[in-house]
Write a structure and sequence with these properties.
The structure holds 2 protein chains of 2 kinds. Chain A has helices spanning 3-14, 86-94, 130-136, 197-202; strands spanning 22-25, 44-47, 51-52, 82-83, 100-103, 107-109, 114-115, 140-143, 155-156, 171-173, 177-182, 185-191, 208-209. Chain A is built from 4 helices and 13 strands. Chain A has a 10-stranded mixed beta sheet, sandwiched between helices. A 3-stranded mixed beta sheet of chain A has the order 7-6-9, with no helix packed on it. Chain B is α/β, with parallel strands linked by helices. In chain B, strands 1, 2, 3, 4, 8, 9, 10 and 11 form an 8-stranded mixed beta sheet that branches. In chain B, α5 (100-111) crosses α6 (175-181). The interface between A and B is large, with 42 and 52 residues.
Chain lengths: 218, 228
């Protein structure tokens, strides 16, 4: 994924986030959306370690040693920020108060199954809060490269890796496309500049429904 | 000195070989590094540790792992500690991985005097394999058992000498839950105050949950901002 394609994907995901929403940005690429969130209206960013109302990231020199996000990055406060314990933090998630969860992925299946927590024998860090975030947010969107480093599609008919949660993904953002999952099928909604629908189809290892009209670009 | 105040050596000396210990903290904030350093110095072995994470290589819990004091970890993730992952893969430690909110709730549940709860979190995953299943009102659910411990090691920003505790910012995390769930609760505090100095509304953990209280002097480097 080129740096430019990654930046455009990050900015595109940021437009998902609107005033009044409560949002969790997962560890890794999703965290980078934080700097592109439109803050004209109040957005409540949740962090698993017990924060609602996370402010933008801060440099080490001005960091508060007690104020990190769930990925370990130092963050700032903003007016209205709240701190609480980990049980309350996940009551918020399981109780259905998260409007949006943005997560990374190794594989997404056409029925919305998500695999993003373990690659047996190779990547075994533990699930953290991933299962709750995937299973209980009102809307789950994935941001990831369209293909892995070997060039294989990360969008598949069925996940080969152990799943994080079943049928949980609503939308996938990649460096090539925006794809919705509705009723167990994949719908191409947008394509990246300089990418064709045929290229997206060829890079996707599952049936992809194309719209009849012209496809918008991002 | 109040009845709960002890020096750090005496506080940790209560811990025996083979004990199960809850340790507060999520990353650096809230991790009781001084209590962990004393546990390293005293060298109790065969420990089971319950913590959100295994800190980072070379700090906190990782030093106990390297010193072969730990048999078992119950955690939500160990992704920032490559040493812990390697020890797990070599079979030198046993690791139970638990979804983070379920880990928190199992601890809170024990602290509330309960024995378990039903949830659908992880129901379709490999983590559900060994858990008892129930069907309630047509919905498949997993039994999650509560999680107790012999000891909890807790880090507070401020405490009064009775053991009322207040935590800073994101340093709260698992600390107040563990302070309720363990048989014997040992607290280190950055600032030690007299009763009445903490606003009653600012108290996160009330004194009856706390058994031992250690006032910290100057904090070690481990508590500071870590540049990665």
């Amino acid at each position: 994924m080129s740096a430019d394609a990654k930046q455009r994907m990050i900015r595109r995901v940021a437009t998902e986030i609107r005033g009044g929403m409560t949002v969790n940005l997962g560890v890794g690429l999703p965290t980078r959306v934080i700097d592109h969130v439109n803050r004209d209206q109040y957005v409540c960013l949740h962090s698993e370690n017990g924060i609602a109302g996370v402010g933008p990231g801060v440099a080490y020199d001005s960091a508060d040693r007690n104020l990190i996000d769930a990925g370990g990055a130092y963050v700032s406060t903003q007016p209205g920020i709240a701190f609480f314990d980990s049980a309350v933090s996940f009551a918020l998630v399981r109780g259905g108060r998260l409007d949006l969860s943005v997560l990374g992925a190794f594989e997404v299946a056409m029925n919305g199954d998500l695999a993003n927590w373990v690659i047996p024998g190779r990547f075994t860090p533990g699930v953290g809060g991933g299962m709750e975030l995937a299973q209980k947010a009102r809307r789950v969107v994935i941001m990831m490269t369209h293909r892995d480093k070997q060039g294989r599609s990360k969008i598949v008919r069925e996940c080969s890796l152990p799943i994080t949660a079943a049928a949980c993904v609503d939308r996938i953002y990649t460096d090539m496309a925006v794809i919705d999952i509705v009723g167990g099928a994949l719908y191409l909604r947008e394509i990246a500049e300089e990418v064709t629908a045929d290229e997206v189809r060829a890079a996707t290892d599952a049936p992809l429904q194309l719209p009849d009209n012209e496809i918008p670009t991002f | 000195m109040s009845a709960k105040q002890v020096d750090i050596e005496a506080a940790i000396a209560a811990i025996t070989d083979g004990a199960t210990i809850m340790i507060g903290g999520f990353g650096i904030p809230g991790t009781p590094f001084c209590l962990l350093d004393e546990l390293l110095r005293q060298g109790q072995k065969g420990l089971t540790l319950i913590k959100n994470d295994a800190n980072e290589d070379g700090t906190g819990v990782d030093r106990l792992l390297t010193n072969h004091q730990v048999d078992r970890l119950i955690v939500s993730h160990i992704g920032l500690n490559s040493n812990a992952i390697e020890m797990m893969n070599r079979g030198e430690i046993e690791v139970e991985l638990c979804p983070q909110g379920i880990l928190a709730e199992r601890i809170r549940n024990a602290g509330a005097g309960l024995f378990g709860f039903l949830t659908d979190i992880g129901i379709d995953t490999t983590l559900a394999r060994d858990k008892p299943r129930f069907e309630i009102d047509g919905r498949a659910l997993l039994l999650e058992k509560s999680l107790t411990a012999d000891f909890a090691l807790v880090h507070a920003a401020r405490a009064d000498s009775l053991g009322n505790l207040s935590y800073a910012a994101a340093a709260q995390n698992f600390n107040p839950l563990m302070a309720m769930a363990a048989d014997h609760v040992i607290v280190e505090t950055e600032t030690l105050l007299q009763p009445g100095d903490l606003s009653p509304e600012a108290i996160h953990t009330p004194a009856p949950f706390v058994d031992r209280l250690v006032g910290l002097g100057e904090l070690t480097e481990a508590y500071g901002v870590r540049r990665r």
